[in-house]
Design a protein that fits this description.
Largest sheet: 2 strands, antiparallel
Number of helices: 14
Number of strands: 2
Helix content: over 70%
Radius of gyration: 19 Å
Order of helices and strands: HHHHHHEHHHHEHHHH
Strand content: under 5%
Distance between the termini: 10 Å
Shape: globular
Number of domains: 1
Length: about 325
């Protein structure tokens, strides 16, 4: 992606986020709910796509990073007290931004801690380690009374809105796209295409894998912070293994390594979950069948060939 075009898309996305926030009073609560959940899923899917799609690893612990960011950012706003829930919008948004960055930073630290010892592994072994890490975070939170334990953490200020959600989603897409298309980012593609050949060429594959994990975890932490400050209540069970699987499905369904694809898949699966909500007893069966049909019809994902076509025309 050319720098001028990427900057234009960033400004356009931020402008669209502002417009959505302006018109949000005219939207009903249900529509706003779906839009915010779709935006959070976009952040999760694009950030995981950096690890699973662009770098070629297989992480099953993304919900753990989301949990780390959700709890860390919530503790910051709860500790801020009146500043986070007061009437001054500038102060409120400043506290919220600081809390989100704190949550993202803590999640990135967790990504670094799990990445350094485990990313020398490959394939199924790496998937098992990341799965175990996500479950460790959930169990630790479940048994820590300081953050509510199994009861969860409540009373979180409802600060998330459409501007914050889609603004951060835009920044996530912009950052990942610029990173992957930069000179440094070609190392991620090299690791994905042939790790042994990349090592032979002098590329530190472990460093690139850890970098992808840290960046992906940071944005997953931001998504967790947005989720916590929208629902106003979080519990460890919210960030279980199935949540990680949901995000992995978005990446695979959209097309590994295709940012437009995973964005489309995140929106589609969010809408699909809502459409099937009326069929509560059969929702998971219908949902699974639709996914199977889509993967049979489009094994490369919804827009899995987007990157190849763009490369062929450049």
């Amino acid at each position: 992606m050319r720098p001028a075009l990427s900057h234009l898309l960033l400004l356009g996305g931020l402008g669209l986020s502002a417009v959505l926030q302006i018109v949000s009073p005219q939207l009903d609560d249900y529509a706003v709910n779906i839009l915010i959940l779709a935006g959070i899923n976009i952040i999760l899917a694009v950030s995981l796509n950096l690890v699973n799609g662009h770098t070629g690893q297989f992480s099953l612990g993304h919900a753990g990073f989301m949990a780390a960011g959700a709890y860390a950012s919530s503790l910051v706003t709860l500790a801020s007290g009146p500043l986070a829930s007061g009437g001054d919008p500038v102060v409120k948004n400043a506290v919220f931004l600081g809390a989100l960055l704190a949550g993202g930073g803590f999640a990135a630290l967790c990504g670094f801690l799990v990445g350094v010892p485990s990313l020398r592994l490959r394939g199924d072994y790496l998937a098992i380690v990341t799965l175990g890490f996500g479950e460790i975070i959930r169990v630790v939170l479940q048994n820590t009374d300081a953050v509510g334990g199994a009861r969860g953490l409540e009373g979180i200020p409802a600060l998330t809105n459409l501007f914050w959600t889609f603004g951060i989603a835009t920044v996530t897409i912009y950052t990942v796209a610029c990173l992957v298309n930069s000179t440094y980012g070609r190392g991620f593609i090299a690791v994905r295409d042939d790790e042994i050949a990349a090592e032979a060429m002098g590329i530190s594959t472990t460093r690139y894998k850890v970098s992808a994990f840290v960046v992906g975890a940071f944005f997953a932490g931001l998504a967790g912070g947005l989720f916590a400050h929208y629902i106003s209540f979080i519990a460890p069970e919210t960030f279980n293994f199935l949540k990680s699987v949901d995000v992995v499905v978005m990446v695979i369904l959209g097309g590994m390594g295709s940012t437009p694809g995973v964005v489309a898949a995140a929106i589609l699966l969010t809408l699909l979950n809502e459409i099937l909500r009326d069929f509560e007893q059969y929702r998971m069966i219908v949902f699974s069948l639709l996914l199977i049909i889509l993967m049979i019809a489009r094994p490369q994902g919804l827009l899995g060939n987007f990157r190849k076509k763009r490369k062929g025309t450049s």
